[in-house]
Amino acid sequence: MANQLVLSNWHKAYIAGGCAVSMWLASQAPIGKVGKGVFLSLSLLHSVALVRIAKPLIFEEASAIARLMMDKEVKNTELLLQTKQLESEMEQVYATSDVTSDTEVINELKDSLEALWDAVATNPTSDLQASTNRKSLYLAAVSLLKNGKSETFLIEEVFGCSGRNFQNGKKLLQELLHEGEENKW
To answer: What top-level branch of life does the organism fall under (predicted)?
Structure first.
């Protein structure tokens, strides 16, 4: 009683499958009709046992896969909710309410706008065209414009497009403002 062998369902399934195949192979030997019948019966018996053992294993495997997929979906949903929360916080930060034209607020907006512009300008080939960086850049630009800063200030000081590049900066600003109005940011 102390040395009992405990087998998992997987081991039992492998044993039943091996026995079923062994009995079927034995029935193919030249052993006569009675021997063939006995081995085929034993093979059928082990096949039925294999099916009975395999049913819970199939259910366990399907449940494990379903749990993994649900966990993945929950993580994706959490990520989406965090992104939405960050977007709403950014909208509140850059919202154009009764903000006075304090130099501290304007400098903070300018710094964040420069950082966003660097993120967008350094990687123009990525999907940043429709990303939250473009949206944040638009909200910061509109906030600075509504706080009394001119388009020239944005183009020269933030975008860094002065001299020959001024027209390119102006075009980029107009595209950004147009995109923001189009998307109703």
So the answer is: Bacteria
